């Protein structure tokens, strides 16, 4: 049975929270593009892998508030908590817009804002 794009994103996020970055990456296209609006753009699975190795010192904690799917897109809103380089937790609110291609995550446009408290 083919998974919906929403189900694919849920499985990919579960892999990240379990510390399985390679499992997450298996849901991405090789030429995936991640744009963090106002910050940086990652091009390709290897760039995302390097980002995850650096940014996810330990698995992030997610609280997904909404997942909205339409066609090739899934929008996700919620909160995420990650450790910074000093090992201190930093909390963010996010809105991610994912574009899917052939059952894989091909593009991310992420709006991320640091907040106080998870």
UniProtKB/TrEMBL annotation:
Residues 11-107 form the SnoaL-like domain. Signal peptide: none annotated. Pfam families: SnoaL_2. It comes from the Bacteria. This is SnoaL-like domain-containing protein. It comes from Pedobacter westerhofensis.
């Amino acid at each position: 049975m083919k998974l919906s794009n929403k189900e694919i994103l849920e499985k990919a996020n579960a892999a990240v929270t379990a510390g399985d970055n390679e499992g997450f990456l298996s849901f991405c296209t090789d030429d995936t593009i991640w744009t963090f609006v106002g910050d940086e753009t990652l091009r390709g699975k290897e760039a995302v892998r390097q980002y995850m190795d650096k940014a996810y010192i330990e698995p992030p904690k997610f609280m997904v508030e909404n997942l909205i799917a339409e066609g090739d897109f899934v929008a996700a809103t919620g909160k995420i908590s990650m450790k910074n380089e000093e090992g201190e937790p930093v909390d963010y609110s996010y809105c991610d817009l994912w574009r899917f291609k052939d059952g894989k995550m091909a593009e991310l446009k992420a709006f991320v804002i640091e907040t106080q408290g998870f």
